[in-house]
């Protein structure tokens, strides 16, 4: 329980700082969203300390914006993820209301916002970066993550999938959607299921995923460190978050 309390307390501190910053910038919309999540985090902290289980009707209110729901899903996963996985996590664990097609232009909107007012928000939803330092197609990350977590090398898709599976398996939920999501993920991890049709044991999923991670982690960490070093040296602030322009992007912009 102490680890969960520590995580909640760190998140509460982050949210309070984010609210203060949003108020200084007179960004009322962001402040309202952050205050809603702050109240939810504080209720979770109270419930954990007292041991009380919140009633169904007392569940935290749904997040106001698509942006914040995506942010919450990515924070749980802890790794670059495809929109459909973020949507599934948001629905299964947070009562989310987002759909994949709502995320199509989200990263572009975030980039425009950053370029018009750099670092004006507490966080940005941004792109994972490929070995060419260009934006990885369909992979969302968070600006607060270190570069090493936002770049993707040859082994990163598998490493990130395993990381996400561990996060999903380790997050308690009675929602049927969470069970279905874990079943789908476990089927792609050797040894994670016992061959039956029922929900897999989360502990077994975690153990199997960690066993495979041990095989790939060292090489992937090295590849990502090299990519992160290049990105830090070659890219400006905006490109570190949203990727360097590719030749095809430049051609499209010239054609406009």
TrEMBL record:
<protein>
    <submittedName>
        <fullName>Uncharacterized protein</fullName>
    </submittedName>
</protein>
